[in-house]
Amino acid sequence: MGGANGKSGHRVWRNARLATMADGAVGLGIVEKGAVAARDGLIVYAGPEAEIPAAAGQGAETVDCVGRWITPGLIDCHTHLVYAGNRANEFEMRLAGATYEEVARAGGGIVSSVKSLRAASEDELVAETLPRLDALLAEGVTTVEVKSGYGLDADNEKKSLRAARRLADERPVTVRTTCLAAHALPPEANGDKDAFIDLIAETILPQVAAEKLADAVDGFCEGIAFSSEQMARVFDKAKALGLPVKLHADQLSNLHGAALAARYGALSADHLEYTDEEGAAAMAKAGTVATILPGAYYFIRETKKPPVDLFRRHGVKMAVATDSNPGTSPLTSLLLTMNMAATLFGMTVDECLAGVTREAARALGLLEQTGTLEAGKSADLAIWDIERPAELVYRMGFNPLHARIWRGQ
Ligand code: DI6
Ligand code: FE
Question: Could you tell me if 370 and 356 are in contact, meaning their C-beta atoms sit under 8 angstroms apart?
Answer without folding.
Answer: no
